[in-house]
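Support reply, case 0932

Customer input (verbatim):
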Amino acid sequence: MKTVLITGTSSGYGRRTALHFHERGWNVVATMRTPRPDLLPVSDRLRIVALDVTDPGSIAAALDTAGPVDALVNNAGVPSISVFEGTPMARVREVFETNTFGVLATTQAVLPGFRERGSGVIVNVTSSVVLGHMPLSAVYKASKMAVEGFTASLALELAPFGVRARTVEPGACLTTNFASRATNGAPLDELVPAPYASWAKRTMAEFTGQDLFTTEVDVAETVWQAVHDTTGRLRFPAGPDAVRLAEAR
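Our regenerated output:
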């Protein structure tokens, strides 16, 4: 029986992906910064483990608790919606610390085991912002584009050892708390410089009002596909809006 370790499983894509793999017979190590046993079913095939991807000690402890895994899904991430001029550099560093450096650190920690066994797959969840030109996402997109480039090169390095690396690119998931987390619940016009306010409000309304969007199930199914794919494919758009953007490139 195979085991997957998934980061950021307290909500949204991560929680649904943990359920998806568990329902299909895998052992699941569901990690979250603050463990919440009530968020996932009780099962001898599902363990909830504390993991802060920005803390090397936490990463080492989580992997020690998990034991050997067959797949790593780097899903944990920090959302960010704003114009760049109004984004403090401390916030930029916070986004990169989780979205980029956290992915790199967790990946590096599993590589020795994967390489020595000659098998394993890493799936890095990025975003459809990497597929098109989207406003209000400069910092977030930069953090995810970095992971896309990292994964592309990593896949080449790992191929001789039978280890695979993939990215999953979710579209806009309007049923999660992404927007609320991205603004810490504050109105957008409180987060952007005044000259941008009316434009940002219109842009956000267009984003939340779109009729083609992604669901948590779309992402879970696409992660499942990416984990099992053996064709050498690198990128997997998730959700109808992401697929449309990928096809338009």
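We compared this against your earlier run and they match. Two observations from our side: The first helix runs from residue 12 to 23. The CA atoms of residues 80 and 184 lie 9 Å apart. Please reopen the case if you see a mismatch on your end.
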